Amino acid sequence: MYELSPYRKNISDWIKGPAIILLLLLQSFVLAITSTTASRLSAFYGVEPETVTWFSQIGTVGLVSAIPIYYRLKLYFKKSDLLTGALICQVILSLCCYLISYAPLLLVSNFFISILKLICLLDFISLLTDRFPVMRHRALFYGIYYTIARVGGELADIFVNPTIEEHEWQAIYLIATIAAGLCIVICLLLFHRERMHRKVPLYQVDWASMLFFTGASLLFCYVLTYGQTRDWFNNQQIVAAFTGFCGLTFLFIFRQYHVKRPFWDLRVFKDYKQIPLGITFMVLMYAFYSTSLLFNKYAAYTFHGEERYLSVIALITLCAYAISFPLAGILLYKRMPVRIMLSIAFLLYAASLFIFFLDVQTYNSMHNLIAAYLMQGMAYGVMLTTLSTFTATNIPRESNGDRVMGSLSFRYILGSYAGYSLFSNWLFRGTTRHDSYLSEGITFNNSIYSSEIQQFKAGFLSHGMDSIHANSAAVVMIAKKIELQAMLLTLREVSLFMAIAAVIIALIVLFIRRFEMHEIAEENRYKIV
């Protein structure tokens, strides 16, 4: 006889919900390579920044590729054993990364830590949904879950960033060890070790498809990461990686239609029309979400001398998420049209980018950027909740795993990294172009240039430099100022272009009637959830 509930019999009902929320929040502190630690890891070990970036992307690939495996593992292991085992592995990996100073270990462990984190998160999410039946409505589910998950992520940034600044960057792994250890204690106290379902053997897992998917994803990320520094397809390694990506993608797709139990059943894209439409806009959403690269690039230049500016940005974003995710969930639950919600989200992105366009200048204050960061966070909250709700509505339980796989693959692997690569290259090429244009007017016949170089030269001479070295240093300083102005011009150019694009898309989306497919009864083949 199988148990119906995973909880121990002596656990009160009022403890269960808060305990699951605490577990989700603690998992936000289980971090490996982040944007904050990547630069420090690169400098500490002398590893190329692109290599660290690529290995950080490997973590995302591991997280996505583990989704079908999780659904098999949960049928093989007891719930308590699966959770405790994953958490113990998190502790071991995080502790090894903290104690052992070895770059390859840090880079590779990112992949496995992400897989283990995915296993824990999916199990905690299912427990949270069971504990709060109101979350069975997709809008409320995403409104509540994203609030917990995203706010938890920002809380981790607020806490972790100052810790890294004040101590060694490896402290992030110590924090992860403590967080995973606390999760183990809570799980041991909360869950019994009885089996809740029939044991299903693991031999039914399609490991070959997982290998194809993981390999194709890693090669795709490799092309996007190294493309800029290696001149894209003029480099043989980029060509080889792209060829490998295409070959593995073909093998993966071919295999999904010719095995009895596909790793990722691609038929969901044909069977449920909301999935391709929703995922297409998710990719578009991440193109706008990636404009945060512009904000962060500007903030890194403007506030790098100020302590804890990253935590201030995280606090602003936390406030935006705490407002936008639950509000969007409630509005969608009250039947607010999806088209209206998406239009509002794109207009918020447009307002954020336009404010940023106006605020970009050589010297600035964080107060001037609060509105831009706030609107950007709210736009993301409204759009992600809306698109997730739309894409997940009326998907039967047996197809839900494949829908989740599609959403996360296109969001985190295609949308996120392609968006980052797009704006990184746009910023690089725009800065180079403006730098060349500005430099053309810099000659000794230019009175401003002559005056500036004489001022710098005088300053260096007063510090004991000889005339030749002082002149060279002055020229370098002028070149840096020109490069800075070129970067600021490019930031304004890109932000204005994307703001205009957001307004256009906000208008276009109002005419896409298919977004209301769940509300128009005569055109809806499925019951409204």
Automatic annotation (TrEMBL):
It holds the Pfam family MFS_1. The keyword NADP does not apply. This is MFS transporter. It comes from the Bacteria. The chain crosses the membrane at residues 54-71, 83-101, 107-128, 140-159, 171-191, 203-225, 237-254, 275-296, 308-333, 340-358, 370-390, 410-428, 494-512. It is found in: Membrane. InterPro entries: MFS (IPR011701), MFS_trans_sf (IPR036259). Keywords: Membrane, Transmembrane, Transmembrane helix, Transport. It is a multi-pass membrane protein. Its main location: membrane. GO terms for molecular function: transmembrane transporter activity. SUPFAM superfamilies: MFS general substrate transporter (SSF103473). GO terms for cellular component: membrane.
